[in-house]
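Researcher: I'm preparing a figure for a lab meeting and need a structural model of a single chain. I don't have an experimental structure, so a prediction will have to do for now. The sequence is pasted below. Please return the structure as tokens so I can convert it later.
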Amino acid sequence: MTNLEDVRRASVAFYDALNSMANGDDTAMQDAWIKGGGATAQHPIGGRDMGSDSVLASFSKVAEIAGGGDIRLEDQMINAGSDMAVETGVEVGKLIIAGNEAKIQHRVTNVYQKQDGTWKLAHHHTDLSPSMLEILQRLTEAA
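Model: Understood. Here is the structure written out token by token.
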């Protein structure tokens, strides 16, 4: 098996975990990421998380208010080395946040790292999502 095939599998695992999170379950997300301080994320709602504890906590918060959705990666391109890989593409679909539907369509860059012999996500970076930001703003104002 090549590194490229293994990275594709890690990507499938991440997007499966992302869809589980969209349906309120962040369990699979816990296994998709590297552990430690090297994990980072720049989310479609802004902000930057550093370290696996912070990154995973942010996905858990979304899972708490998520009520369904389907997010998939299109136009995937992967460049894989021996222990690092970069994936680019466009995330598309929808996410239900506190009963409100957000359209997902933004560019994404994912970085995978081999940790203990297994490919895991090390960094996830998307464009800002105006749809998600609008929903979160309304929820903040209503609180």
